[in-house]
């Protein structure tokens, strides 16, 4: 049975001395909003983190991250799933059930809009990417006594917020289930911990809020990432522009969820439960508990 209740998600994670999402068309510079000073993370990057975790767990995914043609991947899945029909293949893969697909086979081509959609993520404060230079492992040519140099970009620290929504109407087409959504939450958290590559080590999940609405509710708060803000630890005052650039850890700031709490209060009659998973190092201020009472469920 497909999932019947709409969800909204707010996922926050930290990045320390790493590159959140390099732009290959700009020397792998972190994706960046020059006007606001925020680093950006594409929805594709978030979905890749999730898919990579599902692959580690042995789940069937349509896009497995390997360099191969769609024809080759479809042949592999036909052998794994023991089916030939395109919709049966996509129905057997958790990523196509949740994220949708454009099935690229002439006589069977079709598209599914994914029930789960993510916005681009943005840092909650101004960040200054840095170019780091170092010595490469090898010389560029035989006989050279000097090794070549390498350049790489990183951000000293960034706290990044990502908004997502799960649409029960689209799930009726793709077959996405309640269990799929549970696997999505686990993969967001565990997949971020498992970003253990040279450019990504330093990513850590901090907060995952899942708003589960009553069956039949078709609305949404929308853009949960824009209804939170960072304030100074201790005084709870706003950061100045330069102080935002200097944030280097969760100890420097508090997450103020008061604007989000007010929106939740306005929709309280439509909310079934709010599931919250939080890292112990992240401090939150706001009125979530007072507004939601026993509708809050703390997950480990």
TrEMBL record:
| Database matches in InterPro entries | Cas7_Csh2/Csh2 (IPR006482), CRISPR-assoc_prot_Cas7/Csh2 (IPR013419)
> What name has this protein been given in UniProt?
Type I-B CRISPR-associated protein Cas7/Csh2
Biological process terms from the Gene Ontology for this record are: maintenance of CRISPR repeat elements
- Report which residue ranges the record marks as coiled coil: none
**UniProt organism field:** Desulforamulus ferrireducens
Q: Looking at the Swiss-Prot or TrEMBL record, what is one Pfam family this protein matches?
A: Cas_Cas7
